[in-house]
Write a structure and sequence with these properties.
Strand content: 15-25%
CATH superfamily of the largest domain: PurM-like C-terminal domain
Number of domains: 2
CATH topology of the largest domain: Phosphoribosyl-aminoimidazole Synthetase, Chain A, domain 2
Order of helices and strands: HEHEHEEEHHHHEHEHHEHEE
CATH architecture of the largest domain: Alpha-Beta Complex
Structural class: alpha+beta
Shape: globular
Largest sheet: 6 strands, mixed
CATH class of the largest domain: Alpha Beta
Length: 334
């Protein structure tokens, strides 16, 4: 019989860095093989998983606290647009040998800050060693009243197309992250450059609007692979066609400065991805309610077009009413 077997290195890692994040009683302090979760009466559980991979979604020298926050927030963004309240998450880490205690301390600290801020505790997970890039995979879950999830398939002819925040910042920020000298060509000041890079590093999920989207939106998804491509996906599954006025798409001052210096960047802004803003269709009569909720939450909401007809797809129209043609309408890993 083996008594008081010594902890493995993995056990010590989990206990030191991640057990403090497992505040839900169903996580059992990360001492078991699984966790339990009982949804409130009359609620559905919404499930979502996304992974981020070093060299694809973040740079190896990005701050570990921001890598952790980005990994959680891209999942929280999906819960928000479905109308769900965060309830917990599972974490799987594939760690290269270069990761040390200092890195893990900062990663766990950032993850814990967001887990507390968004009310989404760690429920369990796994850690592995890898010879490949650092990979952070999160499976998040949330709750909402039974049958109330906002799907992509609800858009109807005559509804308005809206987005939150600004579009294109993260894609332009990634461009700058690859080549900081580009800032001079785009005539950006240091504050504008920092804004764009910051939007790439750290998404701002719109969880404050989750309840309002359930009440007022007919269809919704987050903008992760580019506004043009994601709206095309929403229209395809809804069986509709939407017309978008490009001049109405909200751009930050930094993005406007870049596009003014290099007009072709409007395609990057519309197709580049990593915005993690809300894209939704809303019946005209429901617009005031959603607008009021967005204002109360301090989230900018902009109407950018209309669902025009039955069909499939989206047209992005310039000032003259001509449809823009994109080389690649949507980001894709494959």
């Amino acid at each position: 019989m083996v008594e008081d077997a010594p902890q493995s290195g993995e056990d010590r890692l989990i206990a030191r860095y991640f057990r403090p994040l497992a505040t839900h009683p169903g996580a059992f302090g990360l001492t078991d093989d699984a966790a339990t979760f009982t949804p409130p009466p009359g609620c559905d559980v919404v499930l979502k998983t996304d992974a981020i991979v070093g060299g694809i979604h973040f740079f190896a020298d990005d701050p570990p606290s921001l890598i952790a926050k980005k990994a959680l927030r891209v999942n929280l963004s999906d819960l928000a647009v479905k109308g769900a309240r965060p309830a917990g998450f599972l974490l799987s880490l594939a760690l290269p040998a270069t990761v040390d205690a200092i890195w893990l301390e900062a990663f766990a600290r950032g993850l814990g800050e967001d887990a507390q801020a968004y009310g989404c505790p760690l429920m369990g997970g796994d850690t592995d060693r890898t010879d490949g890039p650092l990979t952070v995979a999160i499976a998040a879950f949330g709750t909402l009243p039974t049958g109330s999830m906002v799907r992509r398939s609800g858009a109807r002819v005559g509804e308005r197309v809206v987005v939150t925040g600004t579009i294109g910042d993260a894609a332009l920020g990634l461009y700058l992250r690859h080549d900081p000298q580009t800032a001079a060509r785009w005539r950006l000041d240091p504050e504008q450059s920092a804004h764009l890079v910051g939007r790439y590093l750290l998404p701002q999920p719109r969880n404050a609007l989750a309840s309002a989207l359930r009440q007022h939106a007919s269809a919704a998804m987050d903008v992760s692979d580019g506004l043009a491509g994601d709206l095309g996906k929403l229209c395809a599954v809804s069986g509709v066609r939407a017309d978008i006025e490009v001049e109405r798409v909200p751009l930050s001052q930094a993005a406007r400065t870049a596009v003014a210096a290099e007009p072709s960047l409007i395609e990057t802004a519309l197709t580049g991805g990593d915005d993690y803003e809300v894209l939704a269709t809303v019946a005209p009569g429901a617009m005031p309610g959603l607008a009021a909720a967005a204002q109360a939450a301090g989230v900018a909401l902009t109407e950018i077009g209309t669902v025009r007809a039955e069909g499939r797809g989206a047209n992005f129209l310039d000032r003259a009413g001509n449809a823009l043609l994109f080389k690649q309408p949507s980001f894709s890993h494959f």
